[in-house]
């Protein structure tokens, strides 16, 4: 994935030079990232912003934020935005302690997270599918229902030719290879979302609850980060694990189609993720749960991510900077998302998110 | 004199402060779990069950495997360098071994996970096929995991990492054996090996134990290399070819996304690790003192 991001950074650099060249030619509002749905969202809107913004948190959307920040530099050259992917938990702690101006988080704020209730607002930014990647010699297409998936990850199913897997895959010859389950050994929002999905979609089968770290069965194996899990799956024949979309793609892993709420088997894709967002119920605070959402084309294991902003910034200038940056993420940023394997927000949710920004004082 | 005393006291004060602050941070977990913290084998953060036993076991097993491989090799190398090697070979050999100590542990870890672990799987299979059927021993060499990430791989990688430490200290210790002792043994008609056994080993016993303890300290605290190759499972099994986890690895991989009691429990693992190293050091000192007293008795 790093290589991917790097090459994209180079591309972004080229695009930036091109933008500057265009601006030099007199075309002032020609911003390639502009969706044009919002009036006056040209580069001029951001050009007056100057200062420094510090953010940190979830690593899951890091590739997207990095890309967006690099592009944002092209339209708001006087504003420096930094984002440290320290994990959702640490991000919330730092935000609560006033060390950062905004935080990235995959999970909602809990009482123990160190952020005072009522002091923050959620702004949904993008979403991404979590793939169920596997490595099984001779099997290129695999379908799994939530119950089978739960049994595999609880080590109740231990070989690939198990009747439950066969029932999900009519006509496919499955080998008797032993299943090696790979999970994250570090605490992770991806684990949290994956286990939350299993809890929601296979409530009678899944017994391990949900969380950033759960009590995985003894025979399963852990690895660090998405890339580590991907590497572990690749190195074991019969391996299966959950990996975020961009890392799974980058590692060349095959991923299983998962049976969604409407009974359709859908493979992980950005369209499937956006469909999940459309099927999810949005709460008043703009948090939503796209896991196991309804819809025929929905990919059911889709994870949301948010930026936390303060309801009130003591420094009025800071407020404008935060608003400017997050507005950019929600407008121009959305068209960058698919390039780095994230799903943009549906228009309805995007409009709500922009309205949320007006609540900042 | 006063300066030396102050330096000594400072070290003690720092140690005490580390112990006090970490214990205080870990207190919520200790009160939550009680003694079960070190006797419970389940580690289930969502359910707030924090039992460190599986990780204590992992740390102990990996360190044991590392010592089993590293100690004979290191002492052998040290003996070779001080007693047997031609002078010309000595310098370069010492440089190479010291270089081994300079390799960052993450490099060992990456080499372990990308190269060593997959390559060792057939070797583990062979051991399993040959020894797996024997009672008791068979359970130690049970079915290896497909990725090769196991207690054994972690132990072997750590063994390579602690060889330079044990070797260089043992070498220093062997070189302090008085020429007269060695010549006396040889004059009595002892072979080289008898001379080593009779003159070099008794004289250096305390030093060797010290070297081993330093190596053990490194093995128990080793974090990133073990994290990469141990496989990240929470289990207690006699099977050395199975995946497990060790205390430092758990701390470093899970603390980022932890809150509340969970964080306290992870810091608690650090306290347990700290206590274990102090305990082992104290024990080793006692062994050295007794052994040296016995040897003095025997020689006089």
Automatic annotation (TrEMBL), chain A:
InterPro entries: ABC_phos-bd_PstS, PBP_domain, Phosphate-bind_PstS. Keywords: Phosphate transport, Signal, Transport. The keyword Signal applies. Residues 1-23 form the signal peptide. Residues 48-331 form the PBP domain. Belongs to the PstS family. This is Phosphate-binding protein. It comes from Phytohabitans aurantiacus.
TrEMBL record, chain B:
The chain crosses the membrane at residues 50-81, 93-117, 123-142, 151-169, 200-217, 224-242, 262-288. Residues 56-284 form the ABC transmembrane type-1 domain. Gene3D superfamilies: MetI-like. It holds the Pfam family BPD_transp_1. Keywords: Cell membrane, Membrane, Phosphate transport, Transmembrane, Transmembrane helix, Transport. It is a multi-pass membrane protein. PROSITE patterns: ABC_TM1. InterPro entries: MetI-like (IPR000515), MetI-like_sf (IPR035906), Phosphate_PstC (IPR011864), Phosphate_Transport_Permease (IPR051124). It is found in: Cell membrane. The keyword Cell membrane applies. The keyword DNA repair does not apply. Part of the binding-protein-dependent transport system for phosphate; probably responsible for the translocation of the substrate across the membrane. Belongs to the binding-protein-dependent transport system permease family. CysTW subfamily. This is Phosphate transport system permease protein. It comes from Phytohabitans aurantiacus. The gene is pstC.
């Amino acid at each position: 994935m790093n290589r991917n991001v790097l090459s994209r950074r180079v591309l972004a650099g080229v695009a930036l030079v091109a933008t500057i060249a265009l601006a030099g030619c007199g075309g002032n509002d020609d911003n390639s990232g502009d969706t044009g749905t919002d009036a006056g969202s040209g580069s001029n809107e951001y050009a007056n912003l100057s200062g420094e913004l510090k953010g940190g948190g979830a690593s899951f959307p890091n590739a997207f934020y990095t890309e967006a920040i690099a592009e944002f530099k092209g339209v708001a050259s006087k504003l420096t935005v930094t984002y440290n992917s320290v994990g959702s938990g640490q991000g919330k702690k730092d935000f609560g302690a006033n060390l950062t101006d905004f935080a990235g988080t995959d999970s909602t704020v809990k009482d123990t997270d160190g952020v005072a209730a009522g002091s923050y607002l959620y702004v949904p930014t993008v979403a991404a599918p979590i793939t169920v990647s596997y490595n099984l010699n001779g099997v290129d297409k695999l379908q799994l229902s939530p119950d089978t998936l739960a049994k595999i990850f609880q080590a109740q199913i231990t070989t690939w030719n198990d009747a439950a897997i066969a029932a999900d895959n009519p006509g496919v010859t499955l080998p008797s290879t032993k299943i090696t389950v790979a999970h994250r050994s570090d605490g992770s929002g991806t684990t949290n979302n994956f286990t939350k999905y299993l809890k929601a979609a296979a409530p009678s089968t899944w017994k391990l609850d949900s969380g950033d770290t759960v009590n995985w069965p003894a025979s399963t194996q852990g690895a660090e980060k998405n890339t580590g899990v991907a590497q572990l799956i690749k190195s074991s024949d019969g391996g299966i694990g959950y990996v975020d979309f961009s890392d799974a793609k980058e590692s060349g892993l095959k991923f299983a189609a998962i049976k969604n709420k409407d009974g359709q088997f859908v493979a992980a894709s950005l369209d499937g993720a956006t469909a999940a967002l459309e099927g999810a119920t949005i709460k008043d605070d703009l948090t939503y749960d796209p896991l196991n959402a309804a819809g025929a084309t929905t990919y059911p294991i889709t994870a949301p991510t948010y930026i936390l902003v303060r309801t009130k910034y003591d420094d009025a200038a800071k407020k404008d900077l935060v608003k400017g940056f997050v507005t950019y993420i929600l407008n121009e940023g959305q068209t960058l998302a698919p390039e780095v394997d994230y799903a943009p927000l549906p228009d309805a949710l995007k409009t709500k998110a922009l309205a949320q920004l007006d609540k900042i004082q | 004199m006063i300066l030396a005393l102050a330096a000594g006291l400072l070290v003690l004060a720092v140690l005490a402060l580390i112990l006090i602050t970490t214990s205080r941070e870990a207190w919520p977990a200790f009160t939550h779990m009680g003694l079960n913290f070190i006797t419970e084998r389940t580690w289930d953060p969502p359910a707030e069950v924090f039992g460190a036993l599986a990780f204590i076991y992992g740390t102990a097993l990996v360190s044991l495997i590392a010592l089993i491989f590293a100690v004979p090799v290191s002492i052998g190398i040290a003996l070779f360098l001080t007693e047997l090697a031609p002078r010309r070979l000595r310098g370069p050999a010492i440089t190479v071994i010291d270089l081994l100590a300079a390799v960052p542990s993450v490099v060992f870890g990456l080499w372990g996970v990308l190269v060593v672990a997959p390559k060792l799987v057939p070797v583990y299979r062979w051991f399993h096929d040959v020894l797996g059927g024997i009672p008791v021993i068979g359970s130690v060499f049970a079915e290896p995991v497909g990725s090769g990430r196991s207690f054994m791989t972690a132990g072997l990688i750590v063994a390579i990492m602690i060889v330079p430490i044990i070797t260089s200290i043992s070498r220093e210790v062997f070189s302090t054996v008085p020429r007269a002792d060695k010549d006396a043994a040889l004059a009595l008609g002892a072979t080289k090996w008898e001379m080593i056994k009779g003159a070099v080993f008794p004289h250096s016993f305390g030093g060797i134990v010290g070297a081993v303890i330093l190596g053990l300290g490194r093995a128990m605290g080793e974090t990133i290399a073990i994290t990469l190759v141990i496989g990240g499972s929470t289990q207690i099994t006699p099977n050395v070819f199975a995946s497990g986890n060790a205390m430092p690895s758990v701390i470093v991989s899970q603390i980022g996304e932890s809150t509340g009691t969970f964080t306290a429990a992870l810091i608690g693992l650090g306290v347990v690790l700290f206590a274990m190293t102090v305990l082992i050091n104290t024990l080793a000192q006692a062994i050295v003192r007794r052994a040296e007293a016995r040897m003095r008795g025997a020689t006089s």
